[in-house]
Specification:
By secondary structure, the chain is of the alpha+beta class. It folds into two domains: 89 residues, no CATH class; 43 residues, no CATH class. Helix content is 26%, strand content 27%. The protein is built from three helices and six strands; from the N terminus they run βββββαβαα. Strands 1, 2, 3, 4, 5 and 6 form a six-stranded mixed beta sheet that branches. A hairpin with a 4-residue loop joins β2 and β3. It comes from candidate division KSB3 bacterium.
């Protein structure tokens, strides 16, 4: 089992992108404009990709361009993963074409339940745990 995710790495505010003094001469790391939907935040910089094993060891940590969507960066995060490995990632990595490809390559693809369905399960267990903790 492995986990994948990306995190924004801002170099500077987008308004100051033309005035930056770093990464100007680097042929490999060229920052670009990106958007982080979870924070509703525009930034200028890179994306840090992470692939973590079930033991908590970082297997891969590439620096990626900020502008492409996560679904376009999946190949950069999974270059040498064995076919028997289960990969967990958020829905930003999957589109319909990728679902079909992953199902053909690895056999099946699981999706997390919507939060409304999880609420019916999580709420009773949360109140039971609270009741047990509060009785002490």
């Amino acid at each position: 089992m492995q986990l994948i995710d990306t995190v924004p790495i801002p170099v500077c505010h987008p308004k100051r992108a033309r005035q930056r003094a770093i990464f100007l001469d680097d042929p490999i790391l060229q920052p670009s404009y990106g958007y982080c939907p979870s924070k509703d935040w525009h930034y200028f910089g890179l994306k840090g990709g992470l692939r973590i094993s079930s033991l908590g060891k970082i297997v891969a940590a590439p620096l990626l361009p900020a502008s492409p969507h996560d679904k376009n960066l999946l190949g950069s995060l999974l270059p040498d993963v064995p076919a028997s490995t289960t990969i967990y990632g958020d829905k930003g990595f999957i589109d319909l074409d990728e679902q079909v490809k992953l199902t053909e390559d690895w056999g099946h693809l699981c999706q997390n339940s919507p939060s409304s369905a999880r609420y019916m399960i999580d709420r009773p267990f949360g109140s039971i745990r609270w009741a047990i903790v509060s009785d002490d």
